[in-house]
Amino acid sequence: MKTEIIETTIEETGEGTIRVADITIAQLSRGLYRSTANAFKELINNAYDADATVVRINTNFPEFDFISCADNGIGMPIEQFLRYFDKNGIGSCNKRKHKKDTTEKYGRPIIGRLGIGMLAVGQLCNGFEIESHYKDEHGQGKAYRAEIILLDDEIPDKEDIMRNDDLETKEMQVGTWKYEIIDYDENKQGFRIYSYDIRTVFRNEMKSSISEEERKKISFRFSKLHSEFYGNTDKSIRECKPYLETIWELSILCPLPYIDKEEYPIDTDFFSSEQKNSPDFKRAIQIIKDRQLQFLNENFQVVFDGIELKRHIQLATDTERIYEICPIEFNDDVFGSRLKFSGYLFAQIPAAIRPLELNGIQIRLRGVGIGGYDPTFLKYYEQIETIRSKWVSGEIYVDNGLESALNIDRDSFNEHDEHFKKLQQHIHAKLGVFFNRIETKAQERRDEKQKVKKIEKEESIDNIIVEESKGKFKRILRQDLGKDARIVKVNKSNGEIILNTAAHPIRSKTGRMYIENIELVYQVAKHIAKTSEERDVLFSKIIKKVFDKLI
Amino acid sequence: MIKYDTYYEKHCGRYYGWLPASKEYKSHSEKDSLKYFTLCAEEAIDVFMFELEGVLFRDEYGLLPNVFICESDISIADKIFSRVRPPVKEALIIGRLQEILTFQDDNDTRDKSIDGEKRISDSNVRKKLYIKGLAQRLESYFPFDIINFDPYGNLLNPDDRSNKLYQSFERIFELQKAINTFLLFVTTPIIDIHSEFKCRFRSDFDSNVSNYDKISSALKSLIGTTNYDELDENKRISITIAKSIVNQTAKNKGWSSEHKGIYIYENIHGTKMLTSVVQFTQITQENGLFIESLYVDDIVRVIKNMPRYYSYEDSLKDQEVIEHLKRIVQFRENSRNQED
Fold first, then answer.
1. A511 and A367 in a common domain
2. Interface predicted TM-score (ipTM) of this complex, two decimals
3. Scanning every residue of chain B, which has its alpha carbon at the shortest distance from the alpha carbon of A303?
4. Does some domain include residue A227?
5. Distance CA A112, CA A406 (A)
6. Residue A220 within a domain
7. Chain B contacts of A69, Cβ < 8 Å?
8. pLDDT per residue over B51-92, tens digit each?
9. Which of A63, A70, A306 has its CB closest to that of B90?
10. One domain for residues A508 and A439
11. pLDDT in tens, A225-262
């Protein structure tokens, strides 16, 4: 039954039906999010916008028969609840009142716009209850409890909508709701949403991902969680299976600080002093530090099944690699509105970023990750097929603009939006330069490696000669003998076997290497052996050793 | 709202009753760690007390694998989850114990489960199936070595026919059948006692006096009267709860009772609470012959030694209890810090 509600008078109890103007929008109540983490993310965003300092999500691991999300924010007033459910319908809420873009208490950039976040939980359950304890504009404590039941069966499938013209304009009932006013409890200040009516698909997926051994391993310790992501994952977070993958995604997407106060995703110890003095390095690191400070100051905690989440981004951990970093900054008007963003690009040469979910670029709008890391770098086609693109990870924080490009699932962008185009263009320009830098570094590294390898080979051949001749001979390289002189010359008196490096018996470098070494070994065997049989045996033995080192 | 970290009057019952009985039980048991079921508050004092005192042990993964917790209030369940993090082998059971333990299949739920293939469109049926799922899960965890029946609610109100709490108390004895002996802590307010219980207490008391000389003699020699109305209030409630609630229910379900202690305490709001510590043993062919004498002995034990009463003021003077509770709180906080 629908109840007429007068704006200023709130009844002690009330109930009604939830109306949605467009049948397609009705699909929202079934969930429109790509993953479980994205659905939870919406609830977390709501808590963030409500100036909560902590939001706790509980999935009742490992049974997953109950979920709850409770925050200690300003709560949702009953008037807002009714506007949402009784009057204007889902998606009608305007969180940014009086053009205010930030929250009152902590000055956080407000994430939500439409007010559909609450229904995100519909992806995980068939119905839910909410309880809100809040202070009204006069500072008086108020509270209510409400029950929302989603009527899945009433919503036609997308297929039906496409085929049936009549359905398109029909106002849809997607669920029922009722509320009751309850006593305000200061200890419950904030907003909580909970459900025992869990969708079987969600429950089964989560349950099946936890074996007894894995349950023990997780053990609800933050430190263990981190090592789970980095120590036990060879390639992808997917190896962790849906439950941990959800935690990972949430930790990456939510507006949270990096894993540790003092540690940033990039360990600067791995950079050379020359790099550290470069303006690019300094600026990129400063951007990261500023962002970390911003998140720390926002004083926002997300606790998922007892684990406090942090952003598990850990890059640069191996001394064997070369690292590169560069800043990205943009601040200008684009089609009459401000677009401002900053971030960094990071590369490790020559190794793919692991876990591979960190490969690519992540756009963070108002602190929140939109989608995961995009390995196509916003469709950067020029280099995307090359191996080098696997070496790069980056984050872009958008402070102004781009919101109109955001799709309703807040997981992707409308790629035809002007701001998005500009962002894409700017990043691609930076990527062009950055990939060239990486290529140069990679080439330098390859050359250096080859040089070292060559020296190592030469040294090992010298050692073989000395060892096999029992110290009688040693190899000497000479460049000054001329190309017509013999390749190998033996000076018995001083024990020198001279290798004429100027001689070029054939064009091929590899062929020359074989000829030089066969000749060299033959001369050693000949001068050590007393008989021709002994010479043949010795030659065979030494040449095997030499080729073993060379090839 | 009660703050359990400084609820010293309640801790008197834990410290003098639950703890020594549990240690004694453990010393006679061959198990390394006991299996414990609790309806603890968010502070989880009982859980951490037993861990601190070596009754319960964490495993190599930092879990308390033999601890099972049931909580109906989600905001509290969430706090238990993060505080105890979760020590339990399985997840917390989030629901009202009385609803779970008294669940019975009906036409809506028979041959169905919440995990079934077919989607249930009626939300009320889904709710029932959720409770059914919890009931099946909780039942699978039985039997326990120690059950801490300390529910939110009054065991003595309303009358026993519509009193689900009382029915769930009865159900425990049925579900414990796979164990020979166990320890039960029963805590209830002793105010607002339903008239039906009051009548029963009186008639049971009188029949005890007339049927058992040993009980009658004990009353005369130790208290000086066999008149129900002349008994001290605390003594009267202790004897009658032991007789009419605990021993009677246990006997009906095939268990003999041995009261280890009864503690009455008064909280800051003046509410009187009673906690009984009782060890039950299954009645077998062997001890069944002595069931009457075991019963009489237990009631005499109650008359003789119980209850111990702690007023709010008394508990604030008991330094031993205060220090012990502080130590538990400290231990719990240290455990959390180590985890972090």
1. no
2. 0.78
3. B82
4. no
5. 11
6. no
7. none
8. 999 999 887 777 777 889 998 887 787 778 767 755 445 668
9. A63
10. no
11. 677 777 666 677 777 788 888 988 999 999 999 987 66
